[in-house]
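Recap from last week: sequence in, structure out.
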Amino acid sequence: MVMGGADCIIFIVQICLNYCPASLSRHRLRPAGSLQLSAVFRLQRRRDLQIAMGQRSLICLPLLLLLGLLGLLGPLGVLQSGALAIPTPTPPLRAPQSLALLRARDQCSAHLSHAQRMRMDRMQYENVPHVQRYIHCFWSRLQLWHDGTGFDALRIVHSFGGPRRLNVEQALPAINGCNAKARRVSHGVSDWCYRAFACVLKTPVGDWYRRHMADVINGNA
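Predicted C-alpha cells:
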C-alpha cells in the first residue's frame, strides 16, 4: 500500500508519541526515599536516565527530520498521493485564424439541425438553400467574401498562412478563376458564393482546405 504525504506525517507523529516515551519509561527507576538513596544508587539512576534520553534522541531525531522534510516538500507539490506530482499538461494555444474559423462555423450553423451541422463538419456541401446560406455566412464573417467582388483571393492566401503554407502560384489563379466562372452562371449572391467555393474544392487548394479545416475542428490546428 502506498502512503500519501499526509499519511506519512501522521504515521511518523504516532511513532514519536507512542514509541519514544515508552523507550524512556522502560529505563525509569522505581521511586525511593530521597533521604535513603545512596550515592551509588543516585549515580546509577543518572546513568540509566542518560542512556534512556540518548535512545530517545536516536529514535526520534531521524523521524522528526523526516517529518520536517515532508512538511517542506508537501506545500511545493512534490509529494502527492505518495508519488511525485505529475504536472498538468498545458493545452496547446489555438492560432487566431483557427479560432476565427470556429467562431464563424458556430455562428453560421446556429439555425441548422444537428444532422445538417454534422454534414457541414464533414464538408459534405450539397447544392441546397441551407448549405448556400451557410457557405455565404461563413466566408462573409471571415471577411474573405464580398458581395460585390466575390472571394478576396490574396487575403485568403495570407489569412491561411501565406506562401509558407500555400502554393501562392497555384492558389491565386484557382480562387480567382472559380470566382469569375461561378459569377457568370449564378443566380444571386448566395448561389455565386456557393458555386465559387464548390469549384475551389475541386482544386488542390480545396484538398488543402479540407485537411486544414478537419484539423481545426478536431483541435489539431
